[in-house]
Amino acid sequence: MEREVLEAELVLPTHMKFKKIQMYDKYPKGQARGRHWKHLKQIIQAENYENYPPHLPTYVNIETPPSMHPGKKICDITGFEAPYFDPRTKLRYANTEVFKTIRSLPNDHVQRYLALRNAAVVLR
Amino acid sequence: MPFISKIERQLDYGSFNSSHPIVIDNGASYFRIGWAGENEPRVIFRNIVQRPRHKTTGETVTVVGDHNPVLLKYFDCTRSGPRSAFESNVVYQFEIMEYILDFGFDRLGADQSQIDHPILITECACNPVQSRGKMAELLFESYGVPSVAFGVDAAFSYKYNQQLGICNDTGLAITSGFTTSHVIPFINGEPVYEACCRTNVGGYHVTDYLKQLLSLKYPHHISKLTWERVEELKMEHCYIAADYASEVQLFQRGDKEAEEKTRCWQLPWSPSPVEEPPSEEEIARKAALKEKQSQRLREMAEAKRSSKINELENELKGLEFLLEELKDIEEEDEIVLFLASRGYASKREVESAFAKVTQSLRKAKGEQVPSEEKVDISAAEKYYLIDIPDDELSAEQLKEKRRQVFLKSTTEARQRAKQRRLEEELEKEKEKKLEEQKRMENPERYLEQLRAKYKELSEKLEQRKRLKTNGNNANGNNNVSGGVGRGERLNAAQRERMRLLTTAAFDRGKGEDTFGQRDEDWQLYKLMSRDNDDDDDDKPDHDETELARISSRLREIDPTFFPGSESGASASETPRFRPLTKEDFQIILGVERFRCPEVLFNPNFIGIDQSGLDEMVGVSLRRLPSWVQGLEDKMTSSILVTGGSCLYAGVAERLEAGIRMIRPCGTPIKVVRATDPIMDAWRGASVYAAAMQFPEQTFSRTDYYEKGEDWLRRYKFKYTI
């Protein structure tokens, strides 16, 4: 290990004096241990929130409902207000110049623009 | 710079006795750890872990937080990027969390056999019990912590500001963090989680949106747009527009004000070396060299020619001598014998050889070969059989005659074609002269006419091309299905195919489908798949040549003319040859400056179907218990904005305007920003943990083991003590 790396104490030591169980004991090296954690979705599922009384605040039911206002439609490229919609690329656009650019965009860029507002075609 | 890491190791760990609590603000973006009662956390770092491989030794190491990126050059970070223990605002990967805690305690200076201090750690509002339980387990079992308390960061921030007198004990906290934003109402200093609400939008989304937009706008500079850089750009330049629509219109009109609001980031760029035109000397030197080479070639050719002439002359002399000798010999038999000895069959052969050599000699000497007149002379005798009627000829002669007829007709046809070409050339010359004359008379008008004609023709051709190919190629390959989009016109081939199909389907036998019963039916497909290009007549060709002629003419006389400058295809090609300029290395932030933070108020910009910050206040107020009189007004008159994502300029104003829209007229509204939106949560927690009653709010390891998970679920923390 290089001197400057050691001086900056960049690397976390494997042995910690203040710990009762060391990392290397907990997660031994060279052992396939698979996934040992749950994603948030699985955590929420495991909580069985549906069995709770409805007035009790939980992680799920404190979420904000969808907006009461109609969503603002903005041009996917420029951010201007977008009165138009291109049925071919499914992009929203503000004026003819933007239309020209969106028609010359490669398909993956179109998909990335759509993915920005979670509207891309996802192939599984 | 609001975010600064502090990772120096603290040396006074031993001076705190074991009842002194450690306070941890475990935020999704930053981890802060320090001692209760102090004003500043001791250690601050980004809440991320990287596990790169050391380049020389190959061992996998753990790097916590953000370090000097220069030092990371010794590590191979390509296999794993920075990882966070958080999903949304919930800790879910406790292995990573453990690395982070290790690093935090280590830098705080922990050097005893266990962490013998009570710990106050923050968590998100309504943290799932699984996460809370795992965190408690980790702290108790790995670190040997005697007791733990969990609190919500927003509540600590509100409490801290309440103590400073910035907000009342009843009010709202709007907190916008890294991955989520919350609105939490407080009644008498206690958070009311029943009425709080969370939108899954935060600073992460703003930065990500900005990063994506910029990398789509400047695909050539993606490598420059790292997360850290974009985060810096966001913090430095982004602001919240008072009204998005009017602000964006400012930019759409391109006003001067918009220009002033546009920021420009100049990437490092050095002008490419300009190619200097070669100097006079250079040109002269090159010309001399060229001249020398051509001189040498010429000499070589000359030598070759003279040697050939020499050869031919020798041969000629030999033949002449032979002929002279032949003259002397009288006897027929002897002539034959003599010639045979020299390799010739007859006297005639010698003569023809002589003629041939003479001719080639003449040619080699560069004299005019009188072949033309020879043809003329010989024309009559060449076709000597033509005028003789067939019945006077033998079979062999008949064959010969046919050949001669064929030869004669072809030569005549060739001559005719030559004549025609000459005439055409003359015609063209005349036309050119006429045109030139026209030009001389009125150059401008002539140019105008030419241009108009060019435009008309090129448009015509373009139109035809479009009709044929339907312009699909020009518009890129967006048409995934390969079919024709709604509202697009079919091209000629497709139209023909349609027509054939419909006739096949409906022509005979209405109601019953007999297609395919007869073999001829299948011929239809041949018709359909026929390439449509072959039915082009010569008319388009004529147009094309005319277009080419006009464009070449225009190029000659019009310096401003660029062929096909109007069509999009060539316009996209031009930048390839353009030298890169300073402007190509600029990243312009215009609308993006307020478009990206706008996602906090309009999460639907990034496809999240939830209300924005201002509407969340309304949602929260609606969820409040309705039995308290005037509670809502009390709430709105003390609104605290806190969290890292509320540092944008204009947040408070925008929130006030937004809340005013959803509240009845005359409602008292007071929006205040926290004294330090980032650090207040930790400071609040520090003050709280320093209080005498703090130990009552913690729970110990025995509590955790005895009471079980269900108790942990009901564990609730009192903020007012």
Automatic annotation (TrEMBL), chain A:
Residues 73-102 form the Vps72/YL1 C-terminal domain. It comes from Solanum pennellii. It is found in: Nucleus. Keywords: Nucleus, Transcription, Transcription regulation. The keyword NAD does not apply. This is Chromatin-remodeling complex subunit ies6. It holds the Pfam family YL1_C.
TrEMBL record, chain B:
It comes from the Eukaryota. SUPFAM superfamilies: Actin-like ATPase domain. Residues 418-440, 465-486, 529-550 are annotated as: Disordered. CDD domains: ASKHA_NBD_Arp5. Residues 470-481 have a biased composition (Low complexity). Residues 539-550 have a biased composition (Basic and acidic residues). Pfam families: Actin (PF00022). Belongs to the actin family. This is Actin-related protein 5 isoform X1. The lineage of its organism: Eukaryota, Viridiplantae, Streptophyta, Embryophyta, Tracheophyta. The gene is LOC107021004.
